[in-house]
Amino acid sequence: MLPELDRKALQQATQREDLIRKAAAQIIKDFAEFGLEVSFSGDVHNFYQELFSQMKIHVDQLLGEQYPRFLSLLYRIDVSEQQVAMYQQEMADATYIDAVTELIIHRELKKVMIREYFRAHSNNGSEEDSQRLKE
């Protein structure tokens, strides 16, 4: 069974420095594939604000000047237009750009959480298999 990936789970994940660093690395990697620079100082306590402000500039620029490239970025990160619409409804007071940027951060964090889940479970499976072979 997959881990919970709701807002509460995301908030809990932001308490883990290892997940924050991995999510930041994933964001940096995905944006770099489109020639967009995002950096992370390593300050896990301010990671959201630090990454959000940089990403928001890129999202705004892509929306205004290179919409097809913006859609390609969303596709790369695995964000659908339906998810964007849902976030916009949930974040009624936020701008479209803010909602998209937050959604990207959440999606990247979910990717990291899913990888961690499967890594932990595949290691457990290997250990159990090894134990069975020893018996």
Cα radius of gyration in angstroms: 17 Å
Global shape: globular
Give the proportion of residues in helices: over 70%
Main sheet attributes: strand count, strand direction, barrel closure: none
Distance between the termini: 28 Å
Continuous helix count: 6
Counted up, domains total: 1
Could you walk me through the main structural features you see in this protein, from its secondary elements to its overall organization?
The chain has 135 residues and is mainly α. It has one domain. Helix content is 76%, strand content 0%. It is built from six helices and no strands. The chain has helices at residues 7-13, 17-32, 47-65, 67-77, 81-90, 96-134. The longest helix is centred in the last third of the chain and has 39 residues, at 96-134. The radius of gyration is 17 Å and the shape is globular.
Write the layout of secondary structure elements.
Blueprint: H1 7-13, H2 17-32, H3 47-65, H4 67-77, H5 81-90, H6 96-134
